[in-house]
Amino acid sequence: MSKFRLKMSRLKGEQVASQFGFEALPVDPFKIAKDESIVVEAKKPDREGMSGCIVFNDDGVGIIYATHIRSEGFRRFTVAHELGHYFLEGHPEEILKTAPVHFSKAGFTQGHSSIEIEADHFASGLLMPTRLTREALYGAPVGLEGIQHLAGEAETSLTSAAIRAAECAPYPMAVVVSQGDQIAYGFMSESFKRLDRLRFLRKGDPLPYTATRSFNSEEENISSRKSICGSTRLAEWFGGEKTIALEEEIVGLGSYGYTLTVLSSDLLAGDPDEFEDEEEKLVASWTPRFAYGR
């Protein structure tokens, strides 16, 4: 899966948000679905195992989203993810090769399934377009508090806001999602990557022996959405030679079953006016493809 394809998926989400008239947060995926004559229904909360599904048939397109995870932000992200399967070029055709119904588990935990990863990036771009995300972050504190502010403004899940913040933050920041003693995935801002020659965190890598690993050893911390803040060093997480001090902000994600860790430092925050706008230029110049059924 190339970075270019993921970027194009995210930019397609941004383009769709603009196309449907959303010039401020929050972007409403339910309204976009309605405007496209896509029927959206909630799944019974006693049925777990998936976050949502999309159905392509002769009568039209339908989306079903899960309700066993109580977060409204996660449900909105799920609907946005399924819209990715509708709007992204090639997704309907790929899905219809096997069946008219496609089940998803949105939230960047789908392993190496290319269309699922692309749909997640579409959803993050749809719900949090680059310009609007930067505007929300510029007026907010560095780290977890800023991510929580973005999640509130965008009405999306904390994890998706954390990932989008790492992509758009004008200061060095990394976010890590973990479960037990293993890493599920991690994202770093471009300025964070430049701090040193860093090791990239991959799915299944063991968590370093930091506050996050200790936090995960107590299930109650995750289920009760407990949060703590500690300190760590860049090299403890990513290797390298520099002993840069970082804040290690940790929060349990409740019924989602994972933990979010935010690594940042007020001392590393730079001037937001220096942040490059290459993606915005790419959005403006990009010609979108047609969606299914058009």
TrEMBL record:
Transmembrane segments: none annotated. Pfam families: Peptidase_M78. Residues 70-142 form the IrrE N-terminal-like domain. It comes from the Bacteria. Gene3D superfamilies: 1.10.10.2910. InterPro entries: IrrE_HExxH, Rad_response_metalloprotease. PANTHER family: ANTITOXIN HIGA1, BLL7220 PROTEIN. This is IrrE N-terminal-like domain-containing protein.
